[in-house]
Design a protein that fits this description.
This protein has about 170 residues and is mainly α. The chain contains 6 helices and 2 strands; from the N terminus they run H-H-H-H-E-E-H-H. The longest helix is centred in the N-terminal third of the chain and has 20 residues.
Length: about 170
């Protein structure tokens, strides 16, 4: 678990002690409850301070413009990957997909604004056997995603055609 100069932490961990303060741990986690709580409070304070200083709340890099006090794009894509796909590993892939779509909704070509109206959508919903693979995902507006619900890409397009056909006549 720990390497290099952290051998003492590994010894503490192996003996069942908190790697931070050496108090007996209550679980398999590396830190005791008090150290975990202190870490959580410190992270919240760091987050709030970064917002005040117009820094990315994720990594601390300086940001400006309409993203001030939020996350930089790299951290935002990583966050979306965790929330929508369950893994941070696909952050770069969904960022690449966003730019391949030229930052436009896959259905309406409306401009997508990260952290405002941009949303990942599964072409074949997970509820219908779809995967989190990048070839099953595209970017849409939050409104479109809400309307599409758990329809597949083809089902949604058919519904849109039916609606427009009614009003084209």
């Amino acid at each position: 678990m720990f390497t290099g100069s952290n051998e003492y932490k590994q010894r503490r961990y192996d003996k069942g002690f908190c790697v931070n303060c050496s108090v007996k741990r209550d679980s398999e986690k590396a830190l005791c409850v008090d150290c975990r709580n202190a870490q959580k409070i410190a992270a919240q304070k760091r987050h709030e301070q970064r917002k005040i200083e117009n820094k990315c709340t994720g990594c601390g890099h300086k940001i400006s413009g309409q993203r001030a006090g939020q996350k930089c794009l790299r951290c935002w894509f990583s966050h979306v990957a965790v929330v929508s796909l369950g893994t941070r590993d696909k952050g770069e892939g969904i960022a690449r997909l966003f730019f391949e779509q030229r930052g436009q909704c896959a259905y309406t070509n409306e401009k997508l604004i990260p952290a405002k109206n941009a949303c990942l959508d599964h072409k074949i919903p997970r509820t219908k056997g779809g995967s989190n693979d990048l070839d099953n995902i595209h970017w849409v507006t939050k409104d479109i995603n809400r309307v599409k619900g758990n329809k597949t890409h083809d089902e949604f397009l058919a519904l849109c055609r039916n609606i427009t056909a009614k009003y084209d006549n």
